[in-house]
Amino acid sequence: PPGRILVSACLLGSRVRFDGRAKTVADTIVECWRAEGRLVAHCPEVAGGLPVPRPPAEIEPGGDARAVLDGRARIRTPDGDDVTRHFLAGARAALDAAAEHGVRAALLKDSSPSCGLHRVYDGTFTGATAAGPGVTTRLLKDNGIAVFAETDLEAADAHLRTAPGHPG
Ligand code: SF4
Question: Which end of the chain offers a freer environment for a tag, N or C, measured as fewer CB atoms within 10 Å?
Fold first, then answer.
């Protein structure tokens, strides 16, 4: 079977973002993956039990994904509600889905506290960002899965077609 790629569900058109919208990537590379049966759609926050729509949430200032995974930092809404357990459950669900489908690569939506790669929002709810990654991205990378942002489609495609165990 072709190598599969775990993709943030919102990038594939699912209206699962906190604001009830999608962030669809319309690109021939994604359409090729779809035609080839490579796509594994996943939304960590919905898988972790959060509703749509939901309040935005950010890793608290001074924290990062590693600290969240280690229990040293929390993820909160603007009202201070602690939603950390949902983000951790969603990250584990992503890892389970990757294992179930033999996924060795992921294309995730940048800036999200779950799916971010290069940047995440910095916990101040001002729109400012800090260096990433998000919690799901961190866990996938820790487990040997190559993660690409939606701005890195060509690199993701090249990886998918050349990585061992990913014929064609
Ligand atoms: Fe998209 Fe990831 Fe946010 Fe779900 S958690 S809406 S897949 S960026």
Answer: C
Q: What is the whole-number distance in angstroms between the Cα of residue 168 and the centre of ligand 1? A: 28
Q: How far is the CA of 137 from the centre of ligand 1 (A)?
A: 11
CA distances from 114 to 1, 4, 29 (A): 28, 20, 23
The complex's ipTM? 0.99
Domain ranges for the chain: 5-162
Tens digits of per-residue pLDDT, 6-53?
A: 999 999 999 999 999 999 999 999 999 999 999 999 999 999 999 999
Pocket test for ligand 1, best of 12, 43, 140, 147 (most atoms within 8 A of CB): 43
